[in-house]
Amino acid sequence: MVKFGLLGPLFVHDGTAPQPVSGPKVRALLAALLLRPNRVVSRDALKAALWGDDVPASADAALANHLTRLRRGLPALDGVVEERLRTVPPGYQLRVHEGELDIDVFDARMHAARRAHRREDWAAVLRESTAALYLWRGTPLADVHPFAEQDEAALRVHQLCEERLQILEWRFDAELHQGRHQQAVAPLTALVAEHPLREGLHARLMSALRQSGRRADAAAVYHRLRRTLSDELGVEPGADAQRAYAALRTGPRGTATTSTARPTPPFQVPCESTAFVGRDQEREQVTALLGGAGDPPVRLPRAVVVSGMAGVGKTAFAVHVAHRMRDQFPDGILYADLHGYCSARPRPAGEVIARFLSDLGMHPEMVPDDTDDRALLLQEALAGRRVLLLLDNVRDKRQVAPLLPVGGRSVALITSRKLLPGLTDTAAVTLLPLPRSDQRALLSALCGAERLLAEPDAADEIMAACGGLPLALTIVGGRLLSRPQWPLSLLAGRLTPRQGRLEALSMDTADVERAFSMSYVAMRDSALPLERQAARAFRLLGLWAHPVTPKAAAALLDVPVHRAAVLLDLLTDAHLAYSPAPDHYALHDLLGEYAERRVTEEESPQERREAQIRLLSWYAAAVAEACRTATKETQTPPPLDDGRIQETPVFADDEEAIRWSVGELPAIREGIARAGELGRSDMAWRLAAGLFGYATTHGWTGEWDHCLHQAMDIARAHDDTLGQAWLHRRIAVAHGMASRNEACLAHLRIAWDHFSGHGDLRAEASLLGGMSAAHARLGDAEQAFACALRSRELFLELNPEPGDVRIEALSLSRLAVARQLRGEHEQAAEEHRQAADLLRKAGHSILLADSLTRLGDVLALLGRREEAFDALSEALEVRQRMNDYSGTADCLRSMATAHEQFLEWDEARESWEAYLELGRRHHLTRRAEESRTALRRLTEQGH
User: What is the pTM (predicted TM-score) of this model?
Assistant: First the structure.
């Protein structure tokens, strides 16, 4: 059946799926017609609905266009589209069958509920009122602005809202007459807070509390109503409230119950938010654990602990689950907030147990004073019953352990900011920040999907600033809801990180920073020394916005590695940190900003500086070790003179070293900038120069160039000549990798001037080798050969005994390249083969792939096809294994050229096309253009 919905955001359902109603004008048009279904609505009335008092001169044409768009989106009536919206002078008629419009169904259910209420047929009242309320999806015409604010529409919306409250009151009458007084307390409390002047709701809440044995609470409701009415309206409560209050004093049977009503199980779960979204997987997991569902059935734990960082929505999730599992706990659901993290004192277990015993029927005078005795009585009370204990906001296991059921069919659902390790026979579920789709759904539910669609970029900025935390998103959504004229971009601008974002994420009692503070202060002020150390670790992590390992954290914190690991795990267990990968730890973006505030306020400038220098020293040493492992280079910068450097990573091979460098690249980039700010040029240039190993497979990305030039600016600003010399040396390599050969030679010469002036023969030999490679790329065979020969001679003088495989292989390879340019192909092939054999035995993958590629090129020129492709295939396998896209492209180019050498045109085209695809995918512009040129040439030649 077709459905039209006005009781909330406007929707149309054609019987198979909801149909979008796009455009504010079209929605306003449809709403105006649906408010007068099957009646003729004049053109003037429709224009007023669209433009109010400011009807434009082009209104007739615009109205016709909007009507055409509306017709296209309407479902057919009796199979005929045109019959749904008809032109009937002097306007238009929207035809709606009985049962198609939710307002009509709502009205019918309300009339039925009213008749049942008059004859005191409480089962019928409950049935009809529940059915009517089920249709309610939010404020009517919620997304139809400004039409919803016009007099006629606003009056209808107000009428519908009043009717909903009336139906709610009738339904509570039915529940109270059927003995469901305890279940009614929580929703009535929420409604009274929402409607402080609605006397009927107050009267029913007083009756529900009185019949639940909570006379003092009921009296407090009356006195609060009386004060509110006196302050706001200057009147006394009416007859209904007066009768409910009189019943408290005299004790007669109330009007909303009967003497034969059976006591019903307690249901103390707070009201559920109407904006709850997502968490489907976690809900299924918790439901299965609490309900023992599955095949075979899951064995019930004593408790399920739902943990997560502050603001992640643990309480809302637990309440959501409890509402959906109500039928699975026939003996009731008991709720208590244990105040583990709040301004009030944590509630002792004995206090909560006493209340639970009373709720389960024990007279207060029968409850013993001792907590252990109370716990035993609670176990007896739960024995044979199926009860859920919803224990919210738990501080630690000591606070909650006496409350947990032992055996039987009762279970507990616990929320805590800690994992609560040590609680036996429990299951754990961790809530993470919401994924992108659920963030958008939550914001849409709070402030309207139309606003998000109108400003998608600003919406994305807001979601990024909130970090997926439901608390932050709820604050933002509430602010936007109360400010309908605000563009999203205005609020997005106030959520800029470290520029007032935490202050902006606060509204009334909802406050992200305060929520974080409760977790942090509890740890900082703990009686346990280890927790106080963890709080210091949290502060200092605020200095570094990147994941750390225990080894890096040990340097930052100036503690042994094993202690750093313990502190990081303690923070993770308390959800003040998280582990994005094995042995890696990080702070959530918002928590990181909060930690930065704490370290600024609670640590001295000297301590902050020293902590950063310790960490950067560690990174400089770690990058140097990765470079040595990746390149097997013996010519490396002298290490920092820092005796406090902690244990650095150990890499099994070049692949592992390069993978580490890739993963740490954002932190290394940040480290270079931070070193400059701290006036430590010696650290900045070592970090940049140490990325040589990374660049052997990822130099094509341009990241290394950026780091080198950033470090060069710092070295020049601090007149660091050693740093400049090493950076010129590395910049020359970067230019050579990008075939910027003249620039490469220029930087090599500058570096030569420095190192030769200091009599560093090893550096001279290395620089001559680089010059040989640059001259070879420029096609200058004689200069390439002369530099290669002199470089090899110097290396042999410095290393008379064989042993440095890298130097031996490099010097052979450079001689071979020069010989190849001179046409000495046989000798070039032999020297390339010798170099490859040396590198293969040493397990040096990067240089091996380079030597094999060059060997394949020479063998192809010599006509030795099988040997050529064996070498090229081995090189390609190495490059692909190391995710070296630039090197892979070079191998494919050599293969394509070799296939052409052997007149294998189809294979050549296939290699060129693979070369082109790689260039496109990874933005290797020069290589992509080269492949296009080659493919055009093959086509022109008829291949």
Answer: 0.66
